[in-house]
Write a structure and sequence with these properties.
The complex is a heterodimer of chains A (240) and B (111). Chain A is elongated and about 80 Å long. Chain A is mainly alpha-helical and 240 residues long. Chain B is built from four helices and three strands. Chain B starts with a helix and ends in a 6-residue tail after the last helix. Classes of the chains: A mainly alpha (240), B alpha+beta (111).
Chain lengths: 240, 111
C-alpha cells in the first residue's frame, strides 16, 4: 500500500518535467529526509507538513536548475525518427489493408466484419497519429524519437507539460504551416518554435543521445520506403 | 522581507553548521531551528536546492552512510573552498548589518 511519504514524493516529482536533470535526486533526497524525520519520532503527516507543499519544493528545486535548450540537430533527428516510425506504421497498415482487399478480389467482395475492422482500424490509427505527439509529451515528457535523441519537452519553468500546452504546440502540424513555425528555432533565445512560445514550452537537453539514434531514423525511413514500394507494386498489379 | 532575508542567509548558515561537523539533512534543519532559538524556520523542502547549489559550487561535499540498522543517510560537510566562502559571506554580512544598524540607529533620519 502506498504510504503518505510515497504519495508526497510522487507529488513533488509530478511537478518536475521528466527530463529535467536531477529529478530523481530531489525525489530520493526528499524521501530520505521524510524517513529521517519519522525515524526521529515525527509522524508521516508531521514530517510532510514540515517539508512544505510539494509545489513549493518542486519550484525551489527548479529555480536552481539550468534548462539547456536542445540542440537543433537533436530536435531534427527526433522529429525525423518519430515521423519515420509513424509513416512506417501507417504505411504497413495500409499495405495490409490493400492485401486483404486484393485477396478478396475487390472492395465489394470484402466480408463485412473485415471491412468494419479495417474502417475502425483506420479511424483509430488516424486519431492515434494526431494524438501521438501531445499524448507522449504530456505523459512522458518525450516521444520515442525524443527519448532516443536525449531531449524532452518541459514548461518554461521546468515543470511538467500538461495536455493543453502539448496540444497547443502541435497546432502547426494540423494546418501545414509547421515549416514557418519551425524557423523560429533559429532566432529565439531558447530555440523555441513559434508555438512553443505560445504554449510556453521549451525542448531541453535531457540525457545522452543514443548511439544508434540516427541509424534507427535511417532504418525507419528505409522501411517506409519498402512499404511504399510494396504498395506501388500492388497498385500496379491490381491495374494490370 | 523575511523571505528575502532567509534566502540571502541560508547558504551562510548551512556552511557555518557544516564547518563544525558533517550533518545529514534532517539534522541540519533541526540544528538551524534549535540554535536560532526557534527564530529561524525553513520548510525542510527548501533545504535541498540550497545544498545542491553549494555542492555544485564545490563548497560542500556529500557522502552516503548506510548504517547496519535504519535509514541510509546522506551526510554533507564543508570543503576548504566552502570554509573560504563562509568567511567571505560572514564578512559581507557583518558589514551589511553594521550599515543597517547605523542607519536605523539615527532617529533624526540624517537631517
Amino acid at each position: 500500500m502506498k504510504s503518505a511519504i510515497d504519495g508526497y514524493v510522487h507529488d513533488v516529482g509530478e511537478r518536475i518535467a521528466p527530463t529535467v536533470a536531477g529529478r530523481s535526486r530531489i525525489e530520493a533526497d526528499v524521501r530520505t529526509h521524510l524517513e529521517e524525520s519519522v525515524a526521529a519520532g515525527a509522524s508521516e503527516a508531521e514530517a510532510i507538513a514540515r517539508m512544505g507543499p510539494p509545489e513549493d519544493v518542486a519550484r525551489a528545486y527548479l529555480e536552481g536548475v539550468e534548462l539547456v535548450p536542445a540542440r537543433r540537430t537533436r530536435r531534427l533527428g527526433a522529429f525525423l525518427l518519430d515521423m519515420g516510425l509513424g509513416t512506417t506504421l501507417i504505411g504497413s497498415l495500409v499495405l495490409l489493408a490493400v492485401v486483404a482487399v486484393n485477396h478478396g478480389a475487390g472492395l465489394e467482395n470484402v466480408p463485412l466484419p473485415l471491412g468494419i475492422a479495417l474502417a475502425v482500424t483506420a479511424a483509430a490509427v488516424s486519431v492515434a497519429a494526431l494524438l501521438y505527439f501531445p499524448m507522449m509529451e504530456a505523459l512522458f515528457g518525450q516521444t520515442a524519437g525524443k527519448r532516443l535523441f536525449g531531449i524532452g519537452v518541459a514548461r518554461e519553468d521546468g515543470s511538467r507539460v500538461g495536455l493543453g500546452p502539448a496540444l497547443v504546440r502541435r497546432i502547426p502540424l494540423l494546418f501545414d504551416f509547421w515549416p514557418l513555425d519551425a524557423l523560429f528555432v533559429f532566432f529565439t533565445e531558447k530555440r523555441q518554435r513559434a508555438f512553443d512560445m505560445v504554449a510556453r514550452t521549451v525542448v531541453i537537453e535531457g540525457g545522452r543521445e543514443h548511439r544508434g539514434a540516427w541509424a534507427w531514423t535511417a532504418l525507419a525511413w528505409a522501411v517506409t520506403g519498402l512499404v511504399a514500394l510494396g504498395l506501388s507494386l500492388l497498385h500496379g498489379e491490381m491495374h494490370n | 522581507m523575511e523571505r528575502e532575508l532567509k534566502r540571502g542567509t541560508i547558504e551562510m548558515l548551512l556552511l557555518r553548521l557544516l564547518e563544525e561537523r558533517e550533518m545529514y539533512g534532517y539534522e541540519l534543519v533541526s540544528e538551524l531551528q534549535s540554535r536560532s532559538g526557534g527564530r529561524l524556520e525553513w520548510s525542510d523542502g527548501t533545504l535541498y536546492p540550497v545544498l545542491y547549489r553549494l555542492e555544485e559550487a564545490g563548497h560542500v561535499e556529500p557522502r552516503w552512510v548506510t548504517p547496519d540498522r535504519g535509514v541510509p543517510r546522506k551526510y554533507y560537510r564543508a570543503t576548504a573552498a566552502g570554509r573560504t566562502e563562509l568567511e567571505r559571506l560572514v564578512t559581507e554580512w557583518k558589514a551589511f548589518t553594521a550599515g543597517v544598524d547605523a542607519v536605523l540607529g539615527r532617529k533624526d533620519g540624517g537631517r
